[in-house]
Task: inverse folding
């Protein structure tokens, strides 16, 4: 992309992994492309590895404190449950997921809401692992508001293979391993049949 549409709206700004704010994803991607191709427009050769860190203008993110990290699994489980409820209210939650919501409503730990989000994230490929690529949009959207998210996800990847299994996901969110059931297969299979 040689030309990007000027974006006067600050909501389109993005923060890169180099802690530099760009007017839009287009502007950031264009800069990275110029540098990878060694074009004269490249502002800095290190921009070859430029990528999205989060949406919005760059800001100083505070370090996640130990007490915040301890509280994070409960906050995350409750937040996932609330998101699931809101999607159901808007009629944007598929049938099997509605059943999972009903189950999550009866459980103070919202186990099925945690499993739902894992299934929702495991999209390309649907292999029962959530990769960094699959997490990118969630992290980029939430990171400026929730500074514990990225370090928390690093902890979730217990074996450091850059992907999170369902059991790692449930474990880091404080679920009893005996309650974690793989419900993704049936949901993914039904969703494929609808396309």
Result:
């Amino acid at each position: 992309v040689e030309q990007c549409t000027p974006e006067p709206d600050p909501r389109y700004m993005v923060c890169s992994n180099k802690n530099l704010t760009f007017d839009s994803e287009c502007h950031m991607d264009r800069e990275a492309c110029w540098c990878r191709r060694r074009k004269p427009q490249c502002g800095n050769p290190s921009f070859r590895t430029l990528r999205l860190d989060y949406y919005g203008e760059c800001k100083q993110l505070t370090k996640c404190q130990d007490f915040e990290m301890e509280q994070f699994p409960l906050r995350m489980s409750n937040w996932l449950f609330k998101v699931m409820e809101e999607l159901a209210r808007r009629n944007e939650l598929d049938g099997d997921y509605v059943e999972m919501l009903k189950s999550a409503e009866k459980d103070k730990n919202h186990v099925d809401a945690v499993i739902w989000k894992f299934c929702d994230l495991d999209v390309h490929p649907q292999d029962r692992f959530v990769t960094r690529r699959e997490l990118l949009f969630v992290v980029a959207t939430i990171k400026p508001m929730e500074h514990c998210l990225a370090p928390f996800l690093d902890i979730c990847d217990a074996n450091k293979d850059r992907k999170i299994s369902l059991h790692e996901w449930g474990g880091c969110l404080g679920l009893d391993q005996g309650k974690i059931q793989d419900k993704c297969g049936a949901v993914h299979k039904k969703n494929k049949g609808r396309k």
